[in-house]
Amino acid sequence: MRSVRARAALGATLVVAVALIGAGLAVLLVLRANLTDRAGLEAEVAAREVAGQLALGAAYTELEPGDEETHPVQVTDAEGRVVAVSKDLEAISGTGTAEVGPAPSTPVPSPGDDDDDDDDAGTPDRGEVSSDQPDFANGTATVDGETADYRFASVELTTDEDVTLTVHAGAPLAAEQEAVDSVRDSMLTGLPVVLLVVAGVTWLVTRRALRPVEGIRRELAAITASEDLGRRVPEPGSRDEVARLARTTNETLTVLEASVDRQRRFVADASHELRSPIASLRTQLEVGAAHPELLDVPGAVADTVRLQTLAADLLLLARLDAGERPGSAVVDLGALVRDEVARRAGDRIGPVVSVREAGGLEVTGSRGQLARAVGNLLDNAERHAVRSVAVVVRADRGGVVVEVTDDGAGVPPGERDRIFERFVRLDDARSRDDGGAGLGLAIARDVAVRHGGTLTAGSAQDGGARFTLRLPRRAGAGPGLSG
Question: Are residues 293 and 389 in the same domain?
Answer without folding.
Answer: no
